[in-house]
Amino acid sequence: MKEYKAFQLLQQHYLDTHKTTLVELFHQNPERGTQFSLQHKELFFDFSKNKITDKTLELLIDLASQSNLLDNIEAMFSGQKINNTESKAVLHTALRSYEQKIMLDGHNVCDDIQYVLNKMKAFSERLHNGEHKGYSGKHIADIVNIGIGGSDLGPVLACTALKPYCNSGLKVHFISSIDGYQIKDTLSGLNPETTLFIIASKTFTTQETITNANTARKWFLDYAKDTRYIKHHFVAVSTNADAVAAFGIDPNNMFEFWDFVGGRYSMFSAIGLSIILYIGFDNFKQMLDGANEMDKHYRDTTNLRQNIPVVLALIGIWYNNFYGYTTNIISPYNTRLTKFPSYVQQLEMESNGKSVDKDGKSLEYKTCPVIWGDSAINGQHAYYQLLHQGTSINPMDIIVSLSDKFSNKEHNDILIANAIAQAEAFMCGRSVTAAKKELLNLGCNEANSGFLSKHKSFTGNRPSNMLMLPEISPYYLGMLIALYEHKTFTQGVIWGVNSFDQMGVELGKQLAKNIYNDITSNDINNDDITGDELLKHDSSTNNLIKRYLKRNT
Ligand code: F6P
After folding, report:
1. What does the pLDDT read at residue 521?
2. DSSP-H helix ranges across 68-170
């Protein structure tokens, strides 16, 4: 990125402009509120409360153009193997496409996608109408999705956000963690005769998922006593048919997806099976349609100034690489979107948390900021203090739903008022003079007003984006997710990284296996755990292992 002419121009532009405050920008251009906003369908994006001018955007768009963004977008959508470290195409957009033909290695992937969609639809119908029953003839009442990362976060997000759309009468549960408590607690409330497990794992080798799946299988068989009943209660979602068969799941009960769908981009594939069972196939199809609408917008809007994911991505790059801000907060003002920050966290941080470029060259600039957040209204009563008055500046994406037929108007009015007010407060702040005046008006004496006004003042000038959805429906949730997927890709292209591998998660997994072997090895005698077995670790790691062994042997 540093070699692009626009990068150097942006560095200079930053030096020239960064002292201008947001409030000054609004004074210079009172029309900012409308000029720096975009809309697609009913998704509205106000990015006016950012430290940007037309010139900034122009230069950022030059940066995107110099990184060949449009060619890269086309390469992704058309199935080129842009995941260069793993020689894989990246075709999560094909999952929601209306195109009849997308060729990959001489094969039309649309046929496979349609086949699996039809299979999921038929399965959900059989489950909903009671044709697919538990082994004892009872209707399935509970779905348990066992998966982690991309095989969990998307379904959790959708099932939480779209709970009011649940028309199946089914309950859905998610088990992701390896701690024994989660699975014990979940299963304790369930009846093996009426529970269906979805084992969701792209690789079908993930330790947490396979361990939990084995525990669930044992729980089931302890009750049902006969392995022939497994097929009524266990289905798998994976790319690894052999491992699924080895686990003992009937291949007919496997819903396939493919290497061209990355784990964190997989919720619209068969990984969405729990969503389909919960909210029904038609609602899931609405999600696909919403995502597809955003895909079309992203791919077809070649005037990048009008392209919502691109503008969102460019603003992030401006703060990350020129202002040096190190985090980006996702603040949903709706409980139903509480899981959205975690979803975006994996999406962006696992995709772009890289320090070498696609060719393996070390990068001399920062890539992905820390993405974090939670239910915003709760955040207001917890960490917003730092966001308003702390010493760091943390740009925020505020997400609201304009209406919520499942909520009530009074509550929604208060919620939206808070969201809009926070954005205003972050931007405008309050001067020491204004704070003092207010204190004097309240009857505070001169000395106290002078003292307290310093504590009660806000520098302001803290940027935020506002994304307004008309409602949290399957369609707009699909759109929102695709918007962040494309933001992530855009930033990855500009930073020059491969956004579709995740090799940084491997080392910890390997070391955990070694340490597990140390912990479970029969050779290690509790009285002699200072032995050679542990010398391969550093003294801290050895001490920690010993401490655990002392307590547990
Ligand atoms: O360890 C990281 C990761 O590979 C993620 O990329 C993925 O979403 C998650 O683990 C789960 O992987 P799988 O679906 O193969 O079980």
Report:
1. 83
2. 69-77, 109-128, 153-161
Q: What pLDDT score does 35 carry?
A: 97
What local confidence, expressed as pLDDT, does residue 338 receive? 97
Position 36, amino acid: F
Can you give the pLDDT at residue 530? 54
Q: Look at residue 164 in the predicted model and tell me its pLDDT.
A: 96
Residue 509 in tokens: 């997994």
CB burial readout 202-231, b (16+ within 10 A) else e: bebebebbbebbebbbebbeeebeeeebbe
State the distance from the centre of ligand 1 to the C-alpha of 201, rounded, in angstroms: 7
* pLDDT the model gives residue 168: 86
From 161, 197, 171, 380, select the one nearest 290 (Cα to Cα). Answer: 161
**Is 92 marked active-site?**
no
Task: Please give the pLDDT value at position 251.
Answer: 84
Q: Is 207 in the pocket of ligand 1 (CB under 6 A)?
A: no
Q: Whose CA is nearest to atom 9 of ligand 1?
A: 149
480 alpha carbon, distance to own chain's centre = 11
Is there a catalytic annotation at residue 350? yes
Distance CA 156, CA 432 (A): 45
Strand (E) positions, 230-272? 234-238, 254-256
Pocket flag, ligand 1, residue 499 (CB < 6 Å) = no
DSSP class of residue 133 equals B
**If you measure from the C-alpha of residue 144 to the centroid of ligand 1, how many angstroms do you get, rounded to a whole number?**
18
**pLDDT < 50 positions in the chain:** none
Nearest by Cα to 288 from 37, 110, 467? 110
> Is the beta carbon of 155 within 6 A of some atom in ligand 1?
no
In the annotation, is 409 catalytic?
no
Whether the pTM exceeds 0.70: the reply is: yes
C-beta 505 within 6 A of ligand 1: yes
Q: Please give the distance, rounded to the nearest whole angstrom, from the Cα atom of residue 264 to the centre of ligand 1.
A: 8
